[in-house]
Amino acid sequence: MFRAKPIVFLVIWFFGVFLGFSQANAQNKSQNLDTAYIEPTDLLFAARWYLSHKYTNLQIKAPETGRRYSFDPNSGLNMGLGLTYQTFTLNIAVPFGFMNPNRQKKWPLFLDLQMHAYPQKWIFDFYGQFYRGYTMDAGDLLNSDEKYLREDMRVNMVGLNANYLFGGDKLSLAAAFNQVAIQKKSAFSPFVGFEGYFGSVKSDSLLLPTSEDVAEFNFDKSRYFQFGPNAGLAGTLVFGKGFFLTGVASVNYSVGFAEYGRSNNLFKEWGGVPTYLVRGFFGYNDKRFSANVNYVHKNLNLVAVGPFDHAVNTGNYRFNLIYKFQVKRKFGEWFYRLNPMRIINKNIQPY
Predict the structure, then answer these.
(1) Which of 16, 100, 153, 224 could form a disulfide with 258 if both were Cys (CB 3.0 to 4.6 A apart)?
(2) CA-based angle 256:112:218, to the nearest 5?
(3) Torsion angle defined by CA atoms of residues 220, 221, 227 and 231, in that order, rounded to the nearest 10 degrees
């Protein structure tokens, strides 16, 4: 019952990739972009060097005590290169060993697909997390001073968040995230939307060590599905010449179910639960250069079932150095013929 179906994940992954390419940061000229607030720079070639860390952790809550046991994935810091041109963005990063000396060696591989797209009046977030192998710091344990290792632990989570940004003609989140535009004046806007998530957790034995005396709420597998509306506020504060500070926050109320398993016993319940999503961006951005940091964090509280209660938190933080330059017309026309974005966005120009 808890076994993941690869074909389902493959279809959702393909949809997420398509969403990322089709929506990635397009500033659509037909939507009355206010150039007094936003200056498009999608015809400048942006070369990017960046550091990033993606994660999906699991927090198990002890009933009535407020104590939390936090499992962290065996991921690490990635270093990569990327480009943005004609609203097309591609980034590739690798977790080099010298940057991650504390990672467990020879543990199972994992896959983390996060796609955050910011067309002019929309916010899209796609999550496809398939993690293998988790650890818990000794500080989270009452009866041990050693790091707790669970190579067998598997966490899957797939989700989609979509929001309509009412003031997208004056506020560009793409300028803050991928720097395909420049926010010239401060602007703020409310947004509303919808989100949905499903996933599972599974291990070969009970997740928490028996030495913790937590038999009441220990489990070896779980699964969940929940969805619901959300609403929030986004804004960018522009100061100095080219500096910006952007914040986006939303709250959601989801309905759905959670199911926990222990040995051959299953515990399931339907209900509702609040969640939230926050993101922040800070840096400098002009027509030639950009340096910035950004952070995206999604809290996904799950429906509690008796003493069983846990949350899945996923996110990404990144540091970018970007150099922008004008390319020759011949290159622009060649790239335009290959650019898959022109099939979706008819407003893209070759040069």
Answers:
(1) 224
(2) 50
(3) 30
Give Dmax (Cα) for the chain: 69
Q: What distance in Å separates the CA atoms of residue 25 and residue 2, rounded to the nearest whole number?
A: 36
In our burial notation (b when 16+ CB lie closer than 10 A, e otherwise), range 194-210 reads ebbbbbbbbbeeebbbe
Spatial neighbors of 19 by CB under 8 A, at least 6 apart, are: 115, 117, 124, 126
| Burial (0-12, 13-18, 19+ Cβ within 10 Å), 39 | middle
206 touches 262 (CB < 8 A): yes
Which pLDDT does position 28 carry in this prediction?
Answer: 45
**DSSP state, 219?**
-
DSSP reduced 3-state for 12: helix
| Cα radius of gyration (the chain) | 22
Q: Which amino acid is at 298?
A: K
Closest CA to 222 of 156, 317, 290: 156
| Tokens matching residue 232 | 């929030």
Structure-token pair, residue 212: 């913790």
Closest CA to 68 of 279, 306, 269, 313: 313
Q: What amino acid occupies position 188?
A: F
Upper half-sphere CA count for residue 8 (Cβ side, 13 Å): 10
How many Cα atoms are found within 13 Å in the side-chain-facing hemisphere of 180? 27
In terms of Cα–Cα distance, which of 303, 301, 293, 299 is closest to 315?
299
Q: Centre a 10 Å sphere on the Cβ of residue 56 and count the other Cβ atoms it contains.
A: 26
347 bridge partner residues: none
- Tokens matching residue 83: 């480009």
Q: Specify the 3-state DSSP secondary structure of 179.
A: coil
The rounded distance, in Å, linking the Cα atoms of 73 and 28 is: 38
pLDDT, one tens digit per residue, over 45-92 is 999 999 999 999 999 999 878 789 999 999 889 999 999 888 788 888
pTM of the model: 0.86
3-state secondary structure of 79: strand
Structure tokens, 143: 């009866």
Measured between alpha carbons, how far is 271 from 67 in angstroms, rounded to an integer?
23
